[in-house]
Inverse folding.
């Protein structure tokens, strides 16, 4: 018997701008799958429960001629992002029906795993040396929270964003109690964890976001100074509440310039993302004019990628973080959108200036068990 | 008996642009000194043998409202730079007539040391936290090279530039044999030492300067690829001979953008100076548009100041470098200008696009012993 297997397909590269639902990214109902009969070839069949629209997916949609740190998304196949799936059938040792797994998975309801069909071809000899083969990230079994926290936490503080925050903060910040950190996109999944890690370490935290609801959220997380950058100029806030010992960058461009300007001597700038630049052309990017201060202030500006620091830091993350979350010492919030058919719009919302209106990591609820 | 004591006085702040000899920086013969009778007050009397026009002096001439890493130069007093002096009379223990000292000293022939008259007022509570009190650097006795090398080496490889190159390279580069480094201003006093340190460590060296004579000089120092950036676009050379594992920046602006573009994953960019920006206004500075690559390529961009690293690295520098120089394993070149009256023009020459025409660290020969 065939069951409908809806999917969200990457239909056309958007060039610049935000991918338009129905044009670049399209929800389709035409596929189906035989849940009982589909061959597993030693793998396992999963049902997708939740999916995560992420800025990095936009970077993967870039034109083929543009190199970057991630491989390209494949046209005609479902989008790929972090997801939570449940196992229906398995031929793989160690994976059993009912197991929940978190990791990269295609935007469709049912999938024979490991998912290799829509993977981008990645030949290290052909790709730029800084390309990270995103598709190499594998699904990992996650334990049932048994009510201590909702499953959706695996998308925020206990998933890739939380690990990213932990790796960058523990690996690059050299944070000391009493120092001041500024976190841009402070209400994002990554930023909200950075705020809490910094507070736990005794730092003064300045945080910005693009909506008043997010400002409230950042305050609730412990930020000492929280502001809406759309209504309050960043430089004004940093002039009053800086100088900075640490800047956590999720944004790029003009925000980095402001952070450099109001950095203290020997400040550390941690470059984690540049959401302001993913959907624009190289020429539209903001030109930073004060990089001379990197030398004059003896700053350290450092980029990192969580999977590279994970071998050293992930064991601590997986040991410490779930406990802190279960105890309520580190909190998180997810913004749930119901239905895979709303996936394309949820994807676009992540990318618009200021991100989603609502605070909380956007998660698409695809199906219940 | 009074002896004429010529000096070069800082007469007027130049705002933007290169200080004009006779206008902003003026040679004067009107002062005199009683060499036998001038009170030493526990200090010592020196005769200036050589002086060093340096880019950092321009930064000190900036308008008072502009903060920076250095204190301001004082109007009406002689310029201050690194110099080599010989002691004529002394009341200070450990300093004897005939001793040679290297360090910060005023642009005049005879000076009662320590020179405090023309020091800028420096109150750490008032100055930005990244200000370094340049005037705090003291004259240090240097040994007679006894013909193993000329005294002028104390201005290049064995002086502040050599120490700067050593501290930055040993402290920030994490250089490994087989890696590729690009050194801008490779014929400068600092750059020429970086080239040799890198070659000694087994690196491939790309180096640029603004004159063909300097290209030849950089090749003689061991640079594998040397080019004149005025006639060959930097990006072309880096595209062909990169990517870079290390970039040594003496220039700032557009050159940094090119280095970021052609950096390998995990490259280190060492920010040592920004000669392209000292004499222009903030608005004229080049805006760097590819800082997003710092995150994507996981780069580390780091500023440093030699005096801050010196407590850790200077002992090795003073132990190793003079031996290497005496053995001819590390070489240097100085470009000597005779006569303090030519000091203002020598100062201006350092600051023009591409620096001096001639290769070699510019040194002003003020007097013989």
């Amino acid at each position: 018997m065939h069951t409908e297997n809806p999917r969200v397909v990457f239909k056309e590269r958007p060039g610049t701008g935000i991918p338009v639902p129905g044009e670049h990214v399209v929800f389709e109902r035409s596929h189906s799958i035989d849940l009982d009969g589909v061959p597993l070839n030693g793998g396992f069949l999963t049902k997708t429960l939740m999916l995560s629209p992420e800025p990095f997916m936009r970077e993967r949609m870039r034109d083929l001629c543009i190199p970057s740190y991630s491989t390209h998304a494949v046209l005609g196949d479902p989008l790929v992002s972090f997801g939570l799936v449940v196992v229906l059938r398995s031929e793989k040792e160690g994976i059993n029906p009912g197991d929940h797994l978190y990791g990269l998975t295609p935007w469709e309801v049912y999938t024979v795993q490991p998912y290799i069909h829509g993977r981008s071809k990645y030949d290290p000899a052909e790709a730029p040396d800084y390309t990270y083969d995103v598709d190499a990230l594998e699904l990992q079994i996650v334990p049932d929270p048994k009510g201590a926290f909702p499953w959706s936490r695996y998308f925020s503080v206990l998933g890739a964003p939380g690990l990213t925050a932990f790796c960058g903060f523990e690996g690059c910040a050299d944070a000391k109690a009493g120092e001041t950190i500024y976190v841009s996109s402070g209400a994002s999944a990554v930023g909200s964890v950075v705020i809490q890690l910094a507070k736990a370490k005794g730092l003064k935290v300045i945080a910005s976001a693009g909506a008043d609801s997010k400002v409230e959220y950042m305050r609730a997380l412990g930020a000492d100074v929280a502001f809406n950058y759309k209504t309050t100029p960043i430089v004004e806030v940093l002039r009053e509440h800086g100088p900075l010992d640490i800047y956590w960058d999720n944004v790029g461009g003009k925000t980095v310039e402001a952070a450099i300007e109001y950095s203290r001597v020997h400040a550390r700038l941690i470059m984690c993302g540049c959401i302001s630049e993913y959907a624009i052309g190289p020429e539209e990017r903001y030109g930073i004019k004060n990089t001379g201060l990197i030398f004059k202030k003896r700053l350290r500006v450092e980029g990192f990628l969580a999977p590279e620091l994970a071998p050293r830091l992930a064991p601590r993350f997986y040991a410490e973080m779930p406990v802190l979350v279960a105890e309520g010492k580190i909190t998180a919030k997810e913004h749930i959108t119901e239905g895979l058919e709303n996936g394309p719009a949820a994807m676009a919302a992540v990318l618009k200036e200021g991100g989603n209106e609502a605070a909380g990591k956007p998660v698409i609820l695809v199906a219940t068990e």
In short: The mean pLDDT of chain B is 93. Residues 306-326 of chain B form the longest helix (21 residues).
